[in-house]
Structure formats: C-alpha cells, structure tokens
From TrEMBL:
Residues 622-750 form the Hemerythrin-like domain. This is ATPase P. InterPro entries: ATPase_P-typ_cyto_dom_N, ATPase_P-typ_P_site, ATPase_P-typ_TM_dom_sf, ATPase_P-typ_transduc_dom_A_sf, ATPase_P-type_domA, Cation_Transport_ATPase_IB, HAD-like_sf, HAD_sf. It is a multi-pass membrane protein. One of its GO terms (cellular component) is plasma membrane. Keywords: ATP-binding, Cell membrane, Membrane, Metal-binding, Nucleotide-binding, Transmembrane, Transmembrane helix. It is found in: Cell membrane. The chain crosses the membrane at residues 37-55, 231-250, 256-278, 558-577.
Length: 758
C-alpha cells in the first residue's frame, strides 16, 4: 500500500473507531470517556485538515477544507465533541473518496525508456561487437539487425533499409530507405539487417529528444482544480458570513459553530467525488481505463479534440485496397500467387497481402525455392510458375496509370511478376476506421466544438482523410515537438488522442490525454490520462458520454447539497439547530446527495443509438457480407478498363453480370426488406433510410441496363457502338457501389455492438 493509501486508512480508522466507541460509552452512561473519545477523533482529523488548508494556501487557493477546520475547532471550543467527531468521520470519508477519484496516476515514462536502445553493434577490426549506445560516436559503422531499434541517427550503407517509422511519425506503412538515405533513431528495422553510419551520438539523436519532450511536457502540465474548490469560491465566504452574523447577532459562539457544522461542505467533499468514482467504474467495465478523477472531470468539459491520424483515425496497419492486373490476368489468381510467396515472409506488407488473400477465401499453396532480397522483394515457384512479389521487373503501358492512381490515393504498390513479366499490382493503404465518422459526429453532439488532426504523414494523405471525416483543421508532417506546440497553443480545454510513441509528449501536454492502447505503443499509454484498451475509436465517444454525465450528476448533487445546507445554516443561525443535531442533519443531507451521485453508475443513453439484439445481429450479418462482396467489386473497373469487342471481353462481362445478379442484388434486396426496417426503428423513422433505398434503386437500374446490353450482344462479341455506354455503366456501378457500401458501413454498421460500447 502506498503512503497516501496508508494515510487514508489511518484517518478513517482514527475517526470512525473513536466515534463508535464513544457512542457505546454514552449508551453505558459513561459521558466522560465518550466525550474524550469524540474529542480525540476531532483532534485526529484536525491535524491533516490544517495541513490541507496550508497546502492549498501555498498554491494560492482557498478550498472548502477551511470550513471543516473551523467547524472542528469550533466544536472543541464549545465542547460539542459529538459534532466534532461526526465532522471528522465525514471529512475522512470525503478525503478518501476524493483521493481515489481525483488522484492522477503518476505519468512515468517506463515504457518509453525501456524501448530506448541501450547497446549498438559496432564494426571493430572487421568484427561486430556489442557496445553501450553511449559509446557510439559520429562516423562509427553499425550493424542494425532485423527487428531491432535503430540506436542513433545515421545514414544507410551497403544495403537498403526498410523501416517502421510509426514510433516517430505515426506513419503506418514501412518506409524504404536506399543507400545514403538518412534514418532516425527510434525507428524499427522491419526488413533485413543493414549497415548504418552514425551521424550523431545517442544523446543528440531523435529518440532521446522524444524522451526529453515527454518529460518536459509532463513537468509543465498544470494541475486541475478540484470541482469542490470551484464551488467553494462562492460557498466559503457565504458560510463564514452567516456564521459570523449569527455570532454577532446572538452573542453566542455556539450558534456560529452550529452554522459551520451544517455548512461543513460534505456534499462537496462526498457527492462530487462519488459521482466521479462512479463514472470511472462505469468506463472501466467497458474497456476504458481512466487514471483518476481529474482526468474524467477534464474530459467531461473538453471543448477541443486533437487527434493523431495513424492508428487513431485510421486502422494503423496497411490494408489491401485493390488488385490491378493487365488484361490477361485474373486479379484473384494474381493475389493468390502473390500471397503464396508472401506467406513465407515476415514483411509488414507481405502480412497484409496474405491477410487479404485469406479474407477472400483463397487457398494458398506452399511455394518452393523462395528467396527474399532486401529492397527488391520475394520470389519463389508456385504451381510451376515463377512468382516475384515486390518491385516491378518489367514495364508495360498500363502500369503508368496505376502509378499515377497510387500516388493520388497515397497507396503503396506491391508489384507481382509471373514468369518474368509484371502482370499486376497490389495496392495498400492505411484505411480510415469504419467507426471514425460516427464517433466524430457523436463527439460534436456531446459538446466538442473543434476537431484538429495532427499527423507526421504527408499533407496529401492527411488532407484526404480529413476531407472524409470533416475535421476543422489539419496539420501534417508534424514532428513530436510540433505536436506539443500545437496542443499547447489551443485556447480551450483540450483532449489529445493518439497511439504512437511520437504522441507521448503531446498526450502529456494536453489537458487530458487519451491513448489508443489496444495496439498502440506502451509509452503513449503511460503518458495518457485515459487508455482505451480495445481497438475501437467509438469508445472515446462513450467515455465522453460517461464523463459528461458523471460531471453533470456531480454538479447537481453538490448544488442540491449546498442548497439544503443553506437552509440548515439559516436554522442554525436562528438557534433552531444545535451543533450535534446539525451534524446529524448534515449526515442526512450527505446520504441524499451521495445516493443521487451514485446514479452515475447507471448508463445513460448519451449520444449512442440503442439497438435490440435482433437489429445488432442483422447489422453484423450484412457487415460480413460487405467484407465478402467488396473484393469482387473492383473487377467492375478492371473489366471496364479492358472492355473491347472481343469474345474474351464479352465472357468477362457475363461473369460480372452473373455475380451482380446472383450475389450482389440478393444482398441489396435483403438489406432493403430486412435490415432497413430494423435500422429505421432504431434511428427513429424511415427518413433515415430513404437515401440508401434510392441507392438500391440506382444499382438495380444499372444492373438491368448491363443485362440489356448483354442481350443485344452477338456471340462473337460486343458491338462497337455498345462499348461507350457499357463502360459508363460499369464505371457508374463501381462508383455507386463503392459510395453506397461506405455510407452503409458508416451510417449503419458502425452502430453494431462491435463498435458500440455502452
């Protein structure tokens, strides 16, 4: 148990024990020992209470603890020992609750420091020797093994480097650095071993700067004023004025003491922390760890939300978005062959390719003669074919258009070569989280006025994500120091959300830091006040709902308690309530406001949409169907790109039509007849699905148009006069379906229990 925890236990025992023992003595007719025990309890509580007041004065603030001190002193002066003991118990209980609710966990940087490289592998006399990283000087030649952290800043030598830079920039996709390129410490070698020429010492390097920034930001974070002390600005002078007025008017000190007893701010010391503790308990049950009452309270009145992009608004890992091939190659077959080779590689992009193949239900044969070349990719033999995955080994006219498209989309390219000829490319991107748009809308509904996105990624990639999500401001290509400055420049109470090591300093600098802890860096979780332990951004909106409700209940409870205390103060000032009775009356007020505060344990609706189990099951079912249908949709554009009057093109078109009629349209009709009515009930009316129903009608119209063209085609192929309209039909279907799927996933599927917490 910590010293603070032991102190709370001692204070509670040192007040409650004598109160109970004194009551037993009084029941046995032993008035003297009872008074002595109660006086002892009063004195026992008076010492720490005076210390709390002095500590507050040193911080230039005057809190509600002063009323408690005066009430304790007054009880002793007028020999109202029972009243003093009761106040002592209430004070001890309130302080224990407040310390538990508001004590912010120490933001140590253990995880950040543990990741700091402690040694380097330096070439000495032709051999590689392990040396302390502090011994590395500029000009040393170092070996960086696969999977290790780059120890110091330097330039790549001999072999290309493939680095995971997410710890510094937040960029999810690994970055390739050719020989001579500068690399930074703290990045992870995601490829094969390479040589590094040091250009800085460990202390001068990038990663050491990140650690320093986190420490500085932590040290400069301003303390959060207790909710009770904010109320005390008005309540404290009013209580003293009433007590002083009662004494002057009556000439009886006991009336002043009685006023102070009923004015003892236990509704503030008890009710507000109780509501905050209840809110913390509520969030903890659903995968959101709040490290203290101050964090939950600050989140409850945050007005600006600052978000990192990679891993927060996006999934944080590369995902296959498309497979583009030449006119002679089937995209599914190309992906199958590429994944067969990549399943033997530990490369980040290879894992994404294999994952995409499994999601599409492709069976992967075991390759042979597999070799991996740093900077070039992997090659092997699959089903008798030579397959190379990585760099393109030949050029063709269709490839320039794909490169332009990848550049515009901010996608990475993995080229696939079959038997010496580049036949296709796998495009990968860090996709926006499905629940991100709804989460941001919910946060705005909850009171967030401004949303800012900070990222170390390129400006064009950041702008494309920001456009989809509708954020208010974007700052791209930010270093950790620039993120800290951006957070500190925000005028309103701010909440910063991130998941990478590079976000740690900004999380510490914000009024409240929130870490995506499920797959994020441990350092960001250590620097944050709140950690979301599941990989769902929607939990942030849920936590905001709980924080605002808990804070609202805390204010209501404290306000109601103070109002009742004011009525009791008036009675005490008139001599109607003696100190001991006032203490008991105050206990009744405390019980009432605490019961009200505990309402925060129950979940309110907040900004979420409640769903019944049947609707949730439908959303999950049709969401799974989307995942199955998405890959074949890309074939629409591929067929349109290669459409001609040949028999082969006609057969590919018929395959597309069979998929649309036999698989896609039944899915759309099932949504229309089963899913949309259920969603309409949940969202409050059919108007919420009308636009989507119009999308279904347009999809059906285009599919019928495609079928009409097939009916007009001759067996030898399409007529030339059909080609332009067919291309428009295919491109239109692709665009409508892509948008329609995205809208359904954002508006409806994000409601399911997989994305909804409370």
């Amino acid at each position: 148990m910590t010293g603070a925890g032991a102190g709370r236990v001692a204070l509670a025992a040192g007040t409650a024990g004598p109160l109970a023992a004194g009551g037993l003595c009084r029941a046995l007719g032993l008035a003297g020992p009872a008074d002595a025990l109660w006086a002892g309890a009063t004195l026992f509580a008076l010492v720490p209470a005076v210390w709390w007041v002095l500590a507050a004065l040193r911080q230039r603030r005057l809190g509600v603890d002063l009323i408690a001190v005066l009430a304790l002193l007054g009880s002793l002066l007028v020999r109202e020992y029972l009243a003093g003991a009761l106040i002592a118990v209430m004070l001890a209980t309130g302080r224990s609750l407040e310390d538990y609710a508001s004590g912010r966990a120490r933001r140590d940087l253990r995880a950040l420091l543990e990741r700091t490289p402690h040694e380097a592998r330096r070439y000495e006399d032709g051999a590689v020797r392990r040396v302390p990283v502090e011994d590395v000087v500029r000009g040393d030649r170092l070996l960086v093994p696969a999977g290790s952290v780059v120890p110091v800043d330097g330039v790549v030598e001999r072999e290309a480097a493939f680095l995971d830079e997410s710890a510094l920039t937040g960029e999810a996709l690994p970055v390739e650095h050719d020989v001579g390129a500068a690399v930074r410490s703290g990045t992870l070698n995601a490829g094969d071993p390479f040589d590094l020429r040091a250009t800085a010492t460990a202390e001068e390097s990038t990663y050491a700067g990140v650690v320093r920034l986190a420490r500085e930001a932590q040290a400069e974070s301003a303390p959060v004023v207790r909710l009770a002390d904010r109320f005390a600005v008005l309540f404290l002078p009013l209580s003293l004025a009433v007590a002083g007025g009662a004494w002057l008017a009556s000439g009886q000190l006991v009336r002043a003491v009685a006023v102070l007893v009923v004015a003892t701010p236990c509704p503030l010391l008890l009710a507000a922390p109780a509501a905050i503790v209840a809110g913390i308990s509520r969030t903890a049950r659903h995968g959101v760890v709040v490290k203290g009452g101050a964090a939950l309270e600050t989140l409850g009145h945050a007005r600006t939300l600052i978000l990192d992009k990679t891993g927060t608004l996006t999934t944080g890992r590369p995902e296959v978005t498309d497979v583009v091939t030449d006119a002679e190659t089937d995209p599914a077959e190309l992906l199958r062959l590429a994944a067969a080779v990549d399943q033997m590689s530990a490369h980040t992009l290879a894992e994404a390719v294999v994952r995409a193949a499994h999601e599409r239900g492709l069976s992967l044969p075991r390759p042979c003669e597999v070799r991996e070349t740093p900077g070039r990719g992997a090659r092997g033999r699959v089903d008798g074919r030579r397959v190379t995955v990585g760099k393109a080994v030949s050029e063709a006219a269709w490839m320039s258009g794909v490169r332009a498209r990848a550049a515009l989309d901010g996608a990475m390219t993995v080229w696939v070569t079959l038997d010496g000829r580049t036949r296709g490319v796998v495009l990968l991107r860090d996709a926006v989280r499905a629940d991100a748009p709804r989460t941001l809308r919910r946060l705005r509904s909850a009171g967030i006025r401004r949303i800012v996105m900070l990222t170390g990624d390129r400006a064009d990639v950041a702008e494309s994500v920001a456009t989809v999500l509708g954020v208010d401001q974007v700052q791209a290509e930010c270093s950790p120091a620039e993120k800290v400055r951006a957070v500190r420049d925000e005028p309103d109470v701010s909440a910063m959300v991130g998941d990478g090591i590079n976000d740690g300093p900004a999380l510490a600098a914000a009024d409240v830091g929130v870490a995506m802890g499920a797959r994020g860096a441990a350092a960001s979780s250590q620097a944050a006040d709140i950690v979301i332990t599941t990989d769902r951004l929607g939990r942030l909106a849920d936590a905001m709902d709980v924080a605002r409700r808990a804070r609202r209940i805390a204010v209501q409870s404290a306000g109601a308690g103070m109002l009742l205390s004011l009525v009791a103060m008036a009675g005490a000032a008139l001599g109607l309530i003696p100190p001991a009775a006032g203490a008991l009356l105050q206990e009744g007020i405390d019980a009432a406001v605490i019961l009200n505060a505990l309402r925060a344990l129950r979940g309110g609706r907040g900004t979420r949409v409640p769903l019944d189990l049947a609707t949730d099951a439908l959303l999950r079912r049709f969401g799974r169907e989307h995942a199955f249908l998405r890959p074949p949709l890309e074939n629409l554009r591929t067929v349109a790109d290669t459409l001609s009057a040949t028999p082969e093109a006609l057969e590919r078109l018929r395959d597309v039509h069979r998929f649309l009629v036999g698989t896609l349209l039944p899915h759309e009709r099932g949504e229309e007849t089963r899913l949309y009515p259920a969603v309409a009930r949940a969202l409050g009316g059919t108007e919420t699905t009308t636009t989507m129903s119009r999308g279904h009608a347009e999809i059906e119209r285009l599919v019928r148009r495609l079928g009409h063209h097939l009916g007009l085609a001759a067996e030898g192929g399409l007529r030339p006069d059909q080609l332009d309209d067919l291309k428009a039909c295919l491109y239109g279907l692709h665009a409508v379906l892509t948008l329609h799927f995205a809208q359904e996933e954002e508006a409806y599927f994000s409601l399911s229990s997989g994305a909804q917490a409370f």
